[in-house]
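wait is this the right file?? whatever heres the structure
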């Protein structure tokens, strides 16, 4: 417990800074974390490890295709046709790289090719939604101009829905762990994760709603009710992400994806629930934007 707390204290400032700064800082942070997660994912399979190069190449294609044409995240037209063309193009290139990687594999190793494709979707595309949330739904403020410095620097600050995705994921993890420790009696899915309890699961959802609601009340008042809804759904989806990762690790025969973070496992162990809540927040925001646009045009 003490080791987990120390590791959390070390990780938290890094996480806070990259979300607060947003933009290029967030993009670089997510990109680096994805690289570490890819390394852990591939190493977990031992001799039957997936091909790492198409996963890294896919990651580079995804971020290069997003950044280079725009010369800045804030101009990315998230609701326009070219957005979906970009995503489909990146998806096609990623799949093509994965299929090419299977050419050097023997028939008995086809699982490696399938694991490579899973890794591309599971890590690259799901984590990328954090960048999309920041680019599409965050209004940056001039942090440097506010204190009288030039050149002007923009930051996402506290008015970003990336915080909601993070709070839903990590809030659920923390509250589920504490509630399960204190009140846990009934096992949730012992065949997948023997330590998780029904009481802990309920506590995790309540914690997610509480944290997202409080954050929305103080920093995103225009989306307060939406934050509560995301907190409730995110509390469930976050646990599905955690259970999915647990199921994969159990099938592979490992306890943790890595050992980079003492007391927590690897990077992928820490972000497995966030990989599910980030797309959830993004698509809920897309639906909200589409609804607002439709009602305004009527």
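ok assuming it is, sequence goes like this
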């Amino acid at each position: 417990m003490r080791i987990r707390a120390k590791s959390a204290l070390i990780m938290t400032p890094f996480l806070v800074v990259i979300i607060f700064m947003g933009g290029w800082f967030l993009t670089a942070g997510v990109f680096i974390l994805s690289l570490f997660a890819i390394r852990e994912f591939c190493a977990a399979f031992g001799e039957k490890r997936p091909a790492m190069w198409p996963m890294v190449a896919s990651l580079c294609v995804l971020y290069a295709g997003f950044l280079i044409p725009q010369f800045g995240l804030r101009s990315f037209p998230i609701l326009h046709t070219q957005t979906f063309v970009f995503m489909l193009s990146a998806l096609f290139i990623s799949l093509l790289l994965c299929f090419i990687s299977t050419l050097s594999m023997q028939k008995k190793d086809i699982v490696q090719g399938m694991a490579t494709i899973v890794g591309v979707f599971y890590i690259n595309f799901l984590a990328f939604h954090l960048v999309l949330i920041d680019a599409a739904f965050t209004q940056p403020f001039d942090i440097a101009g506010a204190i009288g410095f030039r050149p002007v620097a923009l930051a996402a600050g506290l008015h970003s829905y990336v915080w909601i995705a993070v709070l839903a994921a990590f809030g659920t993890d923390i509250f589920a762990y504490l509630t399960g420790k204190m009140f846990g009696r009934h096992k949730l899915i012992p065949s997948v994760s023997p330590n998780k309890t029904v009481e802990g699961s309920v506590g995790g959802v309540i914690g997610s709603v509480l944290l997202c609601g409080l954050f929305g009340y103080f920093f995103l008042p225009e989306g307060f009710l939406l934050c509560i809804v995301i907190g409730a759904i995110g509390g469930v989806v976050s646990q599905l992400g955690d259970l999915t990762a647990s199921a994969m690790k159990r099938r592979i025969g490992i306890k943790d994806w890595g050992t980079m973070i003492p007391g927590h496992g690897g990077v992928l162990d820490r972000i497995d629930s966030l990989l599910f809540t980030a797309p959830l927040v993004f698509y809920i925001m897309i639906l909200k934007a589409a609804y607002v646009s439709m009602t305004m045009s009527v």
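Confidence is low (pLDDT under 50) at residues 71-75. so i think its the right one actually
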